[in-house]
Amino acid sequence: MFRVAHYLNQFFGQVGGEDQAAIEPFMAEKPLGPGLLLKSLLGEEAEVVASIVCGDDYFTENIELAGQKCLEMINSVRPDILIAGPAFNAGRYGLACGEICRLAQEKLGVVCLTGMYPENPGVDLYRRQVKIVETGSNAAGMRQSMLQMVTLALKLVRGEALQSPSQEGYLPQGIKEAAISQDLAATRAVDMLLRKLGGEPFSSEIMAGDLDVVEPAPAVKDLSQAVIALVTEGGMFPKGNPDRIEAARATRFGRYSLAGQEFLSAQEYESIHRGYDTSHVNQDPHRLLPLDVLRDLEREGFIKELFEEYFATTGVATTLDNGKRIGEAIATQLKEAKVDAALVTAT
Fold it and tell me: pTM for the complete prediction?
């Protein structure tokens, strides 16, 4: 029998709701919660040997440590398959499922897959690395989602050839493979065109990504009359990170006062960003937020004034959807404050 490990968050692991979201990882050598359904669907071909449970907040706020702890537990039971979730549209849960699958694949060579709603932020982050079965937005579709995951997992562990993502029920990973067709490319293209013109369903053989076109803003005509703001995705916050912005996979940003400040003290500011070596900017925050230089330019009349607040988030592994939402929110607030331009610093 194939050995299956199952990853769950605190809710589906039957520990509790948001009040238990900070629990550290633990393992039970039996199926828990939806693991009982998983056990039933696996039948006699595989068995659930362990359930690994971790709180959503704990995992996303301690991603490296949580990932390592979970990986050690998974390795201890020597599974052939790791099934994570399904996470449906729960963002933190989806991120944890994607990361633990990625780690187990890369470090342990275990067959891994999870399940998510297409709009879960974990999809954008992990779909190219991990097979993600498409699910509905909530647990009402648990049985169908779990059945699809079990079917795909067993095919993978048996080494069976897979059909297209749409046929197997997982989200496309951007991988193109050669296939033999009985029809010439011209015939297939004309067939698709006729279907499109006739209002019939059709599927392109090459799916193009959707990319936004962002029109550049007009140039600032006179900097001496311009209000300039500081914005950073480098994770520089007042010490202690008062708004608890995520160190990776950010979903929000902070806005902090610069009123009356000429310099940024290393004792009062720090970067929590997990995507680069922050030691240099933590020694001198001006390497990321050049407040000192902008105050000089303000005194010299090169700019009219520096906006008295700065905006900060962390840009590491942030999904496109969250990045767009954060950017639009910052831009809206800058516009409302009548800021003329922003200096955006990155890592």
Answer: 0.65
